Amino acid sequence: MSSLSSQLWHKLVGMLPGEINDSEAGWLLSPQGHMPLMNGRRARIIVNRVRLVACLFGVLTPLWIVVDLLALPWRLSLQLAVLRLIASAAFFLLYRHYRASATLMQAWAGMACLFAIPSLFYVISHLLLLNHNLEGISAAIGTGYAFLPFVLLAGLAIFPLSLAECIGFAVPALSAHLLGGMLEWTTVDWPSFWGSFWLQVLIAGVSALACTSQLAFMIALVQQAVRDPLTGAFSRRSGEEVLELQATLALRCQSPLCVAFIDIDHFKSINDKFGHHVGDQALKGLAERVGGELRKGDVLVRWGGEEFLLLLPNTTSAQAMRALARLRRCGLGMRPDGEPITASIGVAEWFEDGSYDWRQLLKLADARMYQAKQNGRNRLVGRNVEHHAWLEEEPLLQSV
């Protein structure tokens, strides 16, 4: 059974050529494992759409009061009018106090509030309508309230969600319909009730397909936006976003954060003698070698030209220096003339260097990288006063 489901899943993923690959397909099922940048951008989209829908519902919900006053019994229409005004106020509060700087967890909370307001409205209005025997046009207007769960489930389609998230938000809307049936247990037309419920499940399924399709498209766009097309490393813009995020987390947890600027030595001579295509291959090879040595959570960024930035969260300066020295000993690739590729590297760690702003940390690592170039290239320069014995083992490693 698991093999059959796996084959079916790969077939479905295969219907999205050029959008996502097998390693990214799991992101359509669950938000677990999404890149922090992906989560941040998706959270902003969800928050913006929650605010948009909340604003529209806040405006449109009270407009139906006029119809209720004209078509329903006076007492019932007043009760529903009060309920609509309360719901409208709740929508406006959500719109007003919800901001686009939210995290993914806050985005989920906003969606939960957005769906909870009409779900509660449906249950309470259903209770009010049960106390009246409506006929004619009044019955038609009252029946319209039963379609609110359908609207909720169809509204899921505007959000980029994984399948698990879709199920999580669809279940409360489906539960509201089931609760409505329980409230009129003795009088409900059960064949019609279950027919409506099945239709809601189908709408939820279509919405889930729309949500995951949006998510797949967003994954493809984010991957293209955050990755350097030549080397596969993060682009400079996305690297800055990751560094800002890592700095926020490190400051909150009081954990070390290390960055290293890597500049390939004499790279211009490769382009001049052998052409830019050969130079591109050298850049790709270096990115592959460095990327293959990274831990989960480390980030390689192509900063520009032959410069790379390595982000090492939860890493002290001494640990970073050891890792980079080991990386240099393993090699960064070969030049077209058969000589090994070397690099000048500057390392900075914000607690040890007292640079508690990520921009200052970048400037410090960049300055040390230039110092490495000025001192003869092919060396590491960083602040490390506690490992002199180890530093002596690596003659090209300097302490400042």
UniProtKB/TrEMBL annotation:
Swiss-Prot/TrEMBL keywords: Membrane, Nucleotidyltransferase, Transferase, Transmembrane, Transmembrane helix
The UniProt record lists the keyword Heme: no
Thylakoid in keyword set: no
Catalytic activity of the protein: 2 GTP = 3',3'-c-di-GMP + 2 diphosphate
Pfam family of the protein (one): GGDEF
InterPro entries: Diguanylate_Cyclase (IPR050469), GGDEF_dom (IPR000160), Nucleotide_cyclase (IPR029787), Rev_trsase/Diguanyl_cyclase (IPR043128)
Domain GGDEF span(s) in chain numbering: 255-385
Annotated transmembrane regions: 50-70, 76-95, 107-130, 136-159, 166-185, 197-222
An example molecular function term from Gene Ontology annotations: diguanylate cyclase activity
Listed EC numbers: 2.7.7.65
Name of the protein in question: diguanylate cyclase
Naturally occurring in which organism (per UniProt): Vogesella amnigena
